[in-house]
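From the methods appendix. Each design record in this collection lists the tokenized structure first, followed by the designed amino acid sequence. Records were kept in a plain field format so they could be parsed without special tools. The example shown here is representative of the layout used throughout.

RECORD:
FOLD TOKENS (132 positions):
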């Protein structure tokens, strides 16, 4: 019940939300579809990891709207994708490239919503920059 109330409030602009640009939202949809195909067709990724990633993509796409209350689905997907990268390395580069692009869109949306500078980088994702 609380989740439905939150979605209602966000829809009418009465609660904090992350708001994607139309361009960003459209690009994420394309990337999700490309990722689904790449993951499904991969001969490198084992079936268990495929199923986990595909389920995360499905859940992410179901909750993807112009305005969202949180970005947990994105960050959860990135976590599982990181495991796949760690296990399979360059063999999954096309998948990783699309995830990185999607991550950039999500980060820019989050930074904008949190009123960070437009060129703010995620220091956890770019640790070499934060050591200065």
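DESIGN:
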């Amino acid at each position: 019940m609380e989740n439905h109330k939150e979605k209602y409030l966000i829809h009418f602009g009465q609660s904090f939300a992350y708001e994607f640009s139309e361009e960003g939202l459209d690009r994420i949809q394309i990337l999700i579809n490309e990722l689904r195909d790449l993951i499904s067709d991969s001969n490198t990724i084992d079936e268990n990891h495929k199923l986990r990633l595909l389920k995360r993509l499905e859940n992410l796409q179901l909750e993807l709207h112009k305005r969202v209350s949180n970005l947990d689905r994105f960050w959860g997907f990135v976590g599982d994708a990181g495991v796949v990268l760690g296990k399979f390395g360059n063999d999954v580069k096309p998948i990783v490239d699309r995830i990185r692009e999607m991550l950039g869109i999500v980060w820019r949306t989050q930074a904008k919503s949190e009123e960070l500078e437009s060129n703010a980088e995620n220091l956890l994702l770019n640790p070499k920059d934060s050591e200065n």
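APPENDIX NOTE: The mean pLDDT is 83.
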